[in-house]
Design brief:
Mean pLDDT of chain A: 94
Largest sheet of chain A: 5 strands, parallel
Shape of chain B: globular
Low-confidence stretches of chain B: none
Largest sheet of chain B: 5 strands, parallel
Number of helices of chain B: 10
Strand content of chain A: 25-35%
CATH topology of chain A: Rossmann fold
Number of domains of chain B: 2
Oligomer: heterodimer
Order of helices and strands of chain A: EHEHEEHEEEHE
Shape of chain A: globular
Number of strands of chain A: 8
CATH superfamily of the largest domain in chain B: Aspartate/ornithine carbamoyltransferase
Helix content of chain A: 25-40%
Strand order of the largest sheet of chain A: 3-2-4-5-6
Number of helices of chain A: 4
Radius of gyration of chain B: 19 Å
Mean pLDDT of chain B: 91
Structural class of chain A: alpha/beta
Number of domains of chain A: 1
């Protein structure tokens, strides 16, 4: 196991996301929707950085448990939590936010889920870490850090509020 | 490991109950979205097997299953096989061949859903069996009460009416007590069995029950004439005057801020007067809405052993 990103590398990655988002948004309100779990913490922290820059940010949380494509293979269905999107996404440019993008299946599920809340004008994707090995034609527009991995490697993301520490660990198989 | 079946409340522990209640909340949130449906049970087959008439429970389960994207088929029992003499066992074999993943059963005989559950790999959900249990009703009742009292411990619920014939009284009192709620029974002596749960206070006089027990909610049961071979009390009017929520009693309950619940369908002029339905602490329509969320939570939580 090796540390792929330490605390300061994670803050750099978060700042990079905030900078890119701020640059693209101009004066428009930025609608961030974080995917549980950890995508919500990434979106909260990016939102805080954006607000420091004076941006208008709206924040939502999406639980995609009910949209997963692997129910059949689970012994127990994932524990559900509420999604909290308190603003209308009709016509808005929604930025989905997650901690890691790997196969892209989570984002596929999130796309299905977000369209059941309304009809956004556009959906973009921001991730803290891109570790590669996509199984679907889905690419993030905003990336905090890129990680070279083997398909079987395990990437563990720890975030302060969710896990008590900021760290990204890579375990090679 | 998740359960295959949902048959009664007695066999659930407190943690399982709390998880089912917690999981019902995100389902309820869906009802205000533009699309009220989620794909969690897409492609799964849910069969409704109702040996007793029911409109409310049947349609609540149908809506719940459809909002999970399952395919729902209602097996219309009274008008089909039973009248042609088919046994429950043979019916289940038929349903197996139709590859049901979930079977929702209502039956007049206690224990029939459990017997079916042993015969099939499909998940069996008890939608009411005889005077035994009605566990999804209990779950929605607990969920409705928890919305009003997030800390349920020590709250008081007075269950009123036909305790003897009521599977609702049995299941709802069981779930509430497992959650730390204090339960008492009120009704005519002939309908409140002395033998049932000796540790549940038992009242036969309305005023005495209210003043001594001090309920936070009064739970009215429907007088089930279809389950009574002979009358257990002289008349509807007498029942209403002795145990029903009359206009005067409603004013008294409103003064105390007491909630009123009822599993439906209601008998106006028997368990309650018309004004109860306009009372701001009457939870009857919330119970109906919460029933869908609670049943979605149950369907979502089970794991059929069909594949």
């Amino acid at each position: 196991m090796s540390i792929a990103l330490d605390q300061s590398a994670i803050s750099t990655a978060l700042s990079r996301l905030a900078d890119q988002l701020f640059l693209d948004a101009g004066t428009d309100t930025i609608d961030l929707v974080g995917i549980r779990r950890r995508g919500d913490e990434v979106s909260e922290r990016v939102a805080a950085l954006l607000k420091e820059k004076g941006a208008n940010v709206r924040l939502g949380v999406l639980d995609i448990s009910l949209y997963r494509d692997d129910f059949e293979h689970l012994h127990e269905n994932p524990l559900l939590q509420s999604s909290e999107i308190d603003f209308s996404i009709d016509g808005s440019r929604v930025i989905l936010v997650d901690d890691v993008i790997f196969t892209g299946r989570t984002i596929r599920a999130a796309l299905d889920a977000i369209f059941d809340y309304g009809r956004p004008a556009a959906v973009e994707l921001a991730v803290l870490i891109d570790r590669g090995h996509r199984e679907l034609p889905i690419e993030p527009r905003y990336v905090g850090a890129t990680l070279e991995t083997d398909r079987l490697d395990h990437v563990r993301v720890g975030l302060m509020k969710t896990d008590g520490e900021d760290v990204v660990e890579l375990t090679q198989k | 490991m998740a359960r295959k079946d949902f048959l009664d409340i007695v066999s659930l522990d407190r943690e399982e109950i709390i998880q089912l209640l917690d999981q019902a909340e995100p389902f309820k949130d869906l009802f205000t979205r533009s699309v009220k449906k989620v794909p969690a049970l897409k492609g799964k087959a849910v069969l409704m097997l109702f040996y007793e008439p029911s409109t409310r429970t049947l349609s609540s389960f149908e809506v719940a299953a459809k909002r999970l994207s399952a395919d729902v088929t209602t097996f219309d029992v009274p008008s089909s096989s039973v009248t042609k003499g088919e046994s429950v066992r043979d019916t289940i074999d038929t349903l197996q061949a139709m590859r049901a993943d979930y079977i929702v059963v209502r039956h007049g005989l206690s224990g029939q859903p459990a017997a079916i559950a042993r015969q099939t790999g499909a998940s069996v959900i008890n939608a009411g069996d005889g005077a035994h249990a009605h566990p999804t009703q209990a779950l929605l009742d607990a969920f409705t009460l928890r919305e009003k009292f997030p800390e349920m411990e020590g709250k008081r619920v007075l269950i009123t009416g036909d305790i003897l014939h009521s599977r609702v009284a049995r299941s709802t009192s069981t779930i509430l007590r497992k959650l730390g709620v204090k339960v008492a029974f009120l009704g005519p002596g002939s309908l409140v069995p002395k033998t049932a749960s000796p540790d549940i206070p038992r009242f036969t006089n309305y005023d005495q029950a209210i003043s001594e027990f001090g309920p936070d909610a009064v739970y009215l049961l429907r007088i089930q004439k279809e389950r009574m071979a002979a009358p257990f009390f002289p008349s509807d009017r007498e029942y209403h005057n002795l145990y029903g929520i009359t206009d005067e009693r409603l004013r008294q309950l409103a003064g105390e801020g007491t909630y009123i619940m009822h599993p439906g369908p209601i008998n106006r002029g028997v368990e309650l007067c018309d004004a109860v339905l306009d009372y701001d602490r009457c939870l009857i329509s919330q119970q109906v809405e919460n029933g869908i969320a609670a049943r979605m939570s149950v369907l979502y939580g089970l794991k059929p052993q069909t594949s």
